Amino acid sequence: MPAGTSHLNRLQAHLDSDYSWLRDEIVNLHPNLDDDAIHTRQLLGFALINIAGCPEDEAVAHITDGKDDRGIDALYFNREELNLYIFQSKYIKNPTKHSPIKESEALVFTDGIDEIFNLTIFTSGNKALIALKDEIITALSTPNVEPIPTLISTSEKDITKGAMTRIDRRLFQSTGQRGALKYVRLSDLYEFISTYGDRSGIEIKLTLNDYKIIPSPYMGYYGWITGYTLAQLYKKHGTRLFCKNLRSSLGKTPINDEMANTAKDTPEYFWYFNNGVTFISNKISRALRGGSSAEDIDLTITNGSIVNGAQTTATLGELLKNEETRDRLSHIKCLVRILEIPADHEDFATDVTRYNNSQNDLGPKDFVSLDPFQQQLRKELEREYAINYNIRSGEGTQNSDPANISLQDATLALVACGTSIEHAVRSKDKISSLWRDTEKPPYTTIFNPQTITALALRKAVCSNRHIEEFLSEKAQKRNSDDVFSTQMSTIATHGNRLFAFYILRNTNIYRDEQPYEQFESEITTLDLDPHFQQFVAEVYEQFSGSYMAVLFKNAQKCTKLLNALPRLTPPVV
What residue ranges define each of the domains in the chain, with the CATH number in brackets? Predict the structure, then answer.
């Protein structure tokens, strides 16, 4: 029997045994479905629960497969992960012969995604989609939500080039991301049930360099391995390396991108910048090299798993695929800890996993507080205006209290009153990048000691808070029965930084002779509503079908949008 067929049989047996309740719910709700339709919805329920994190008792309600589904077979908003999962499912009986999706089906799927982003899905979609209206609107109105279009298929074949081209082109237009589609094929599903159905760990072999031992209370080894060794482990074992971890790889994130850049550009610095990887195991077998005094040791890790360092492992694993970066991996030293915890000490193993994934890291914001200019602003704001300027982590966050200004408040305000659209976009995408290096732009451009005074900063914050308060009201006034009000709410949430920049750019906050009270009176009496309505209308005129959370992180599109809007006279001159 071909492997594809045996894997499909194993998957179906798993669904029929462990998810028989799901089949019963589907049949009770739709008694006239044939076996193919039932299997498709079983697969969707499995994906919703295990991939999207949907609670079991909500899974069936999130299956939208059927007449007028607009190519959307299931949908779930994971509020904790801030992911909007959009599923298309294909149950293929012959895994090795039939493609997972046709070009026509691909087009329908991407059209349906556009309708979701346009909020028109509720007028064309079926009852199941309409029932998820509030959930969809909430997802689209929540900052930093990532849409995850996902094709689930029991096929083992690749998506055809034609279908993939259609999907990638359309999803790039709407999400701004290349390769946005996640394709989960039969082998992935088989690995999934094998990995997560059995969390007992795997056998891992590696050579630990310059090793040391912690003999008690639990045996532990520490040393280093090359980046190439770690990448090879990921290539061999895949996500099974993380079977006891709280999470697998997070994919492309700013931190992972920086990690990859270090590995490519300065591999010799990787050891200094990276926290390393932690393995746990029930048993560790060792074989010394060159006798008991050897500095390196060969280890066999039984029932093992990485419990911290999944991002490091997956990032280096991706570099292994590229010939240009592969050679760099052998120059990387990666710190490694390997802990031997007996099988009957499961509680301690759980604690090790939990605590290794719950420590706070220092970010760029923490280093900004060391800048003498920030310390100067802090003193001046307190002395002259009785304002607390909170520049350290934990001292305070962005709020509207006039007696408090946070570093985020200050940065967003100065960017909004500035001249750089790139800064405005980056403040929405990844504000921490503006603080990356306190000795170079963009930080030194935004916090320029030659132009920024305590008074100027206070005026900038006042201006931006007025905009934010206005947009906050707009965001809260959405009416799910009124598409335009929902669109306004969505743009008020995602387009807040660009709209603030549109209104406030080139605002003269530097006139020390102008009292703060006069400035505040002028700025807070601005009528923002007509400008915002025009802003919303232009967004949908220019970028209908785009996912708003991504649109406002794209500098090119934001520039195009601003150029299409009438240029405003700075509100305060």
Answer: 3-192 (3.40.91), 200-356 (no CATH), 364-564 (no CATH)
